[in-house]
Design goal:
- The protein has 84 residues and is mainly α.
- It has one domain: Orthogonal Bundle (Arc Repressor Mutant, subunit A), CATH 1.10.10.10.
- It contains four helices and three strands, in the order αβααββα.
- Strands 1-3-2 form a three-stranded antiparallel beta sheet.
- α2 crosses α3.
């Protein structure tokens, strides 16, 4: 089940173009932490958890890591938005 913070991170991602963790943290519309480093760290841990659940994946195997939403992530986000 998605939390509101997971849903917000999924909203800034899409299935085609990848975003770096820091860029995803900047685009997400929530307040977390007192600086960008803390915010990026939190988003990274949420992305790692969502990756284990199959909601996001790496764009490719290059560094730095870029994240994209999977079709399962898109479906979960739609389901979350219906309930909200």
């Amino acid at each position: 089940m998605l939390t509101s913070t997971y849903a917000e991170v999924l909203r800034v991602l899409d299935e085609e173009a990848g975003l770096l963790t820091g860029e995803a943290a900047r685009r997400a519309k929530f307040n977390y932490g007192s600086n960008q480093r803390q915010r990026s760290g939190a988003v990274r841990s949420w992305l790692d958890a969502m990756k284990r659940d199959g909601l996001v994946r790496f764009l490719d195997d290059k560094k730095p890591v870029c994240w994209v939403r999977t079709p399962d992530g898109t479906a979960a986000l739609r389901q979350f938005d219906k309930k909200s």
